[in-house]
Amino acid sequence: MFTGIIEEPGTVKSIKKGAKSAVISIEAAVIFSDLKPGDSVSVNGVCLTAATVEGSTFTADIMNETLTRSSLGKLTIGNRVNLERAMSASGRFGGHIVTGHIDGTGTITNIKREDIATWYTVKTEPKIMRYIVEKGSVAIDGISLTVANVGRDNFSVSIIPHTAKETVISEKTVGSTVNLENDIIGKYIEKFTGAASGITKEFLIDNSFLGEGNV
Q: How far is the C-alpha of 193 from the C-alpha of 199, rounded, in Å?
């Protein structure tokens, strides 16, 4: 599990692509204080397993499902990526629950400065938009952010200077693809209260959870 609070940007040193897989090598600094083979690392929001750790570089295997569902397949040597180690039990929970299992991608359609902040508008598909709520949480390339505005097929977030400095979001441009992960709590609530659970509007009314005037 991750928090969406990026620890540092890393740099892609090499990518070896197979027919339906890839091996990526990333160089960084901070995360190597205790990183070891087998540990989970969020790379632009995607949970990868460190296969090897040598000095200030780690490698990770990327399977076809990850390449097709995320933007990792578009990375090139020299690209910078957001990095976060899995949350430690003794750490502070500064962001929100981020699994590193992204739901899909979005495209940045607008970037606008507003005093110290920068607004990013991201367009994405309906299956992701259904869980995007105003003032709710979303992870963009692994960054825990608050949704400021919601449109029909897009949403906007406002980036403060600290986030811009500590992540690679400021290196994105209009047309850039970003990895998106919805707040997992909303998905669980939908699952638990769906048709299979037997919880319906009528059930809530019959059991005095809702009054007719509250529907």
A: 6
